[in-house]
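Teaching note: in complex prediction, the entire set of molecules is handled at once rather than each chain in isolation. The prompt given to students was simply: 'Predict the structure of this complex.' The entities are:
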Amino acid sequence: MSEISTSAVSSGAAPKTSDAPLGRDDLARLVARDIAPGSFVNLGIGQPTLVSNYLTEEQDITLHTENGMLGMGPVAVGEQIDPDLINAGKIPVTELPGASYFHHADSFAMMRGGHLDVCVLGAFQVSAKGDLANWHTGAPDAIPAVGGAMDLATGAKDVYVMMTLLTKDGKSKLVPECTYPITGVGCVTRVYTDKAVFLIADDGVRVRETFGVTFDELAGLMDVPLLAG
Amino acid sequence: MSEISTSAVSSGAAPKTSDAPLGRDDLARLVARDIAPGSFVNLGIGQPTLVSNYLTEEQDITLHTENGMLGMGPVAVGEQIDPDLINAGKIPVTELPGASYFHHADSFAMMRGGHLDVCVLGAFQVSAKGDLANWHTGAPDAIPAVGGAMDLATGAKDVYVMMTLLTKDGKSKLVPECTYPITGVGCVTRVYTDKAVFLIADDGVRVRETFGVTFDELAGLMDVPLLAG
Amino acid sequence: MLEFKDTVAEAVAGVQDGSTVMIGGFGNAGQPFELIDALLEGGARDLTVVNNNAGQADEGLALLIKEGRVRKMICSFPRQSDSWHFDAKYRAGEIELELVPQGNLAERIRAAGAGIGGFFTPTGYGTMLAEGKETRFLDGKWQVFETPIHADVALIKALRADGKGNLVYRKTARNFGPIMAAAAKQTVAQVSEIVPIGALDPENVVTPGIYVNTIVKVG
Amino acid sequence: MLEFKDTVAEAVAGVQDGSTVMIGGFGNAGQPFELIDALLEGGARDLTVVNNNAGQADEGLALLIKEGRVRKMICSFPRQSDSWHFDAKYRAGEIELELVPQGNLAERIRAAGAGIGGFFTPTGYGTMLAEGKETRFLDGKWQVFETPIHADVALIKALRADGKGNLVYRKTARNFGPIMAAAAKQTVAQVSEIVPIGALDPENVVTPGIYVNTIVKVG
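The expected output is the structure of the full assembly:
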């Protein structure tokens, strides 16, 4: 599977940062560390929400939730729970000082107008050109539901994907072309997986670092040509 | 000039409400009386602003000013003057209880979305089909300026025009076709003049009432076929 | 003319068979449950409903769907763990679904209220949800043409109304309320509190009274 | 990254020759006079300026025009009793004018901030100002295609900012501020007061800090 990639670049050029694949929390910590100070960020439902646990006060990140808020705080517990204060996953959350509320058109205008610095999303597949598939399995009997996924994918300045690299069947989710219905065209800029961090660059897919695998081993898992660092 | 109109309808069918042409204030009083209770109204710059002097408390009319306010009160005097509180004519005004402020896009969305019940505008010309010309004389050396005239003309549910019927040269401003550049197509629903009130109806221009002239005398002043009441 | 009604039944009386009804709320936040219950009681059928979701569990919109009163849903996210009534109707072919990306849903509702006849947006370009739609390359991106969503009636929930119909909301329960209020011919708001004219700061009004036709206090 | 500057000169340093600059205000209300003065001092030229008017009397934008620093005005109402500097430049053929109906100006600015590539509106249909523009029959009306107005820098005036850059305005001085803040790559706000984070009620923030890059306190 790895002919193109291993022939195209010298192996080992992307550093193997850890000896084992990263767990979900370590991956979330890594994504959190990579977000520039002062950024406005939207964290998608599911795995991406873990990122909020690792953002530091010094980073001064402002979280957006597309149902109409900037300055979202941690998940609400106990008496903090307020049915009028929820996130896009409909989970009760809290409000931080300096927050603001706005209606849905204003909230999506904020996303669609390119004002969010980063959004972090889960994915079924990402293509080598940065196409994202994360809203629909394509199964004929599935009831389709899209929510704000397409707006986030299209609107944020940077779209980071967090996912396991392989499906349960051992197939790479970073693919030459998405086979699932896509969410957005060429929108993903980085892919954070348990085995490696990939940068979707103009000249191809770069491997920034690997976890528990060498560059060559990684290349052997996928059909996508890989470039080092 | 009046062949069509006088032959088309029986003369005298529109009541002569007063023996003399109406003055500006009497006309403003008439327009004010005709506005349905509870209406949201925008009064254009110039003569239409006089209408506000004759709105009664019982009518409960809410005035809109397109620079971003509902619930505008009378012109500010003395210590009421606040440079942050002006109307569309840039005149200091006051705020009534129950007012609200909004930005320009929201304010024009209100106009353009068809939410204002009535706007009252001045005009250079109105055509028999309700085309309005009130923004540009068409003079080649004129510096064009349009402001919110086109939005008001197009957006309000009813557009009332207030003007003298005749130019200083004695020509009717209610014309078969506008010769001045138009502000909006088929938008005017009523024309209040010193000599008569005209309704722009599907079947033509109806004369609701006349002031100081008979229906036939009125018809003789214009090239537009007139229908009675 | 603004009207204050004593009961939710009177408040929703304007909804007729075949009406397009916008219902505010995102999840439970901002959902006008009492107005929806009144709609259920009222018996109007063959409705087109615009809401972000398609009902949850055994209450509100979900019951309206269960009872077969909704001909068509326009929404962004019908499939939820507890959307069983919608799921059943959908699989049985008994309800039509227009699936709209959430931002397009919001912007199309806003467009209706703002008198915009249509607009181009990059959202959805190249996806199943833009199939058959006009596209155009604008501002350096491929964009898709979308049209406004108008409604006959909007049912929304706000925190507080004054005597002029001005509304303020509470936290993320604001969501679709302000844009739906502007997009419908007739807007009905259920509120927790009615305050005198002058009690709301004009700087902080979110929905000016011009967009509100009927107010009913609940709870 | 949000920055608080000590002087208006530093605040407008991002305006370059050839920049498109949006300037808030309707008449004098909401005009950021101090920022305009700094722009005049700063020397940037060949500017495209977006403002509702084209300067009044012998101050602010009027002086910028007088000094020949404005290549093009995009506005709705240039001709006023005291717009003599614009009038002179225009008659001399030394300034370009794009005249835009006020609602189109507002909506086009809003579109830029909201990522809308273009929209159809009935305003202006059949008039000189729609000549040569695409038209389409939508929602029962003829409508005209209009495109967004983007800017490099927006100079606006607000009443109060908090430490996160959230802004509130005062009365009708709000006008173009919120939409210009969203439409420009870089937004500079002059404010009368800076308050600590948490001092503004989140329900009442008009311009969230995400739209603001630079804040300077004046007066």
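Point out the following to students. DSSP finds five helices and 14 strands in chain B. The longest helix of chain B spans residues 24-34.
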